[in-house]
Amino acid sequence: MAAPALLLMAVACGLCAGGNYFNQALLHSIALHFGVDDAVAGLSVTVAQVAYAVGLLFITPLGDKFERRRMAVVLMLLAAVGHAMVGWSVSFSMFMAGTLMAGLFSVAAQVLVPMAAALAAPGHSGRNVGLVLSGLLVGILLSRSVAGGLSAIGGWSLAYQVTAVVMVLMALWMQRALPTSRHPQPMPYVQVLSSMGQLLRSQPALRLRTTASALAFASVSVMFATMALVLASEPLQLSDAQIGLVGLAGVTGALIANVAGSWADKGKSNVLLRLGAVMLLLSWWLLWQGQTSVWWFVAGVLVMDLGLQAINVTNQSSVASLLPEARSRMNAVYMTGYFAGASAGSALGVWAWNLAGWQGACSVGAGLACLAGVSVWRGVRWSKQQRRLQLQGAEV
What pTM did the predictor assign? Predict the structure, then answer.
């Protein structure tokens, strides 16, 4: 697949995914604008992630039924409508409805990921997936900085207004520039959905990798859901723009996405998985110190994003190669679990914040990181056992 097309897909993924994270840097301003509590505004983070998870479960599997380029374009246009509703909302209910719509249809990004794998040359699917996921990751990480910067220029709603326009232009560009991609044997929708449960039951690697990544993202989402609240509070009292800049620390996580994809192609994924689990747990100690020091907080965000991407990209690259004939459905199962974990983590983060402030959030996040580490260890042990069995079978 040509590099310009891959780059376009990476940018589109970043735009789709990033828009769902604007509110994380703007929660305090959104709460003030609509006259609601910070915790109520924080529910928009959970709504966006639940909507995304629902879209992953019921929309992205259609990539094994419909032509993927056209599907991604239509979804992106619908997501643009959701962002427009948020950007020009006149009430909190309209804001939440737009957040739900944008989250639901921004799964266009997860139509493009298996498409990149399907169009890859033999032996390069991990590299293609890693590159596209790098764009997705950069979009997520830059989204907070972009949102904070635009908020300083024209208020919190400007980020959504600009994104709505850019998404329409990007969708039209994709329609002209990307190649078509269709499953060789399209399946009826009911069969597509029913087969996902069968895939989950019959593929232990899919179950193990999905569980590990879901727990890791749940841990990270505790931080995402409460980051703006702790940074805007005393003693730090950062502005929207400053909170957005803190998110830039995690952009280095994009570097590991390409590394993880390449290592997955070379069979070195277990090393990255272990490293990611250790970094994820370490990040919570750094973030604990970050309540009174921006520099500790920045260090925690950096280490956390590196850890999450080491786990996620490695696992998603592996899932994409398990059953080539079911890439969209396998990816849908994996990403549904991944963002279900994120939704649970966001809800737990807000609950812990209300109960015990930043210390409560850190305790919950660290506990989830421990569970993710145990799940990673189980997955690595299982993959080693399978490798030994394969070698023994080859010798026989």
Answer: 0.73
